[in-house]
Design brief:
single chain; about 200 residues; mainly alpha; two-stranded antiparallel sheet; two-stranded antiparallel ribbon; 9 helices
Length: about 200
């Protein structure tokens, strides 16, 4: 693994926090339009970067070093982030959508960076230090954004950490964790909310 590349990716990944930050201040209908427009643009870029065009060559020359090998033929992680952002705004209440999107941005980045810098021991392919960093940051994020709801705060942190640590496969396709973490965690929290937690 190229540690410098991975840390660089996660620093860029932190900018995805702009999605929940904007949603804190924007009404849902406007946020859906913004997220939908951003997703459409990124999908177009994701398609064009793989074409033998001037744009494709420019993109690969500038950003190619940051891409993982599978992203050369599949969607980029950033595209899944924006898809997750759009779906979370569409499907979940505002507090839950904002919470899971901050967890996606901050906790995922913290897990990767801490895992690279300090992770020695591993469990199921993930560093224990990285998973601990994910859990602690997710717990703090949920506590700040869902104050006074102890049960749902703990469930949010545990659910997100488990989804991040355990890869989800549908058939032979590994679901990108930029999609699975916020969507599954959001579904779990919505269920808990329906129970009155």
């Amino acid at each position: 693994m190229n540690h410098g590349r991975e840390i660089g990716r996660k620093v860029v990944h932190l900018t995805s926090a702009l999605v929940p930050i904007v949603y804190l201040f924007a009404p849902r209908d406007r946020m859906l339009m913004l997220a939908g427009a951003a997703l459409a643009i990124v999908l177009a870029v994701d398609w064009l970067r793989r074409t033998p065009t001037a744009f494709g060559r420019w993109f690969r020359g500038l950003f190619g070093y940051m891409l993982r090998s599978y992203e050369e033929r599949e969607l980029m992680g950033g595209t899944f982030v924006l898809l997750a952002g759009f779906l979370c705004v569409l499907l979940f209440s505002k507090p839950i959508a904002v919470t899971v999107l901050f967890i996606l941005s901050i906790s995922d980045s913290a897990a990767s960076i801490i895992g690279i810098l300090f992770g020695k021991a591993r469990f199921m392919g993930k560093t224990i230090a990285g998973s601990a960093a994910f859990f602690v940051t997710a717990l703090v994020i949920a506590a700040v954004l869902l104050p006074g709801r102890v049960g749902i705060i703990v469930v949010a942190a545990v659910a997100a950490t488990l989804v991040e640590a355990l890869p989800l496969r549908i058939g032979g396709w590994k679901v990108d964790d930029n999609l699975s973490v916020p969507l599954i965690t959001g579904c779990v929290l919505t269920f808990c909310e329906a129970l009155g937690w």
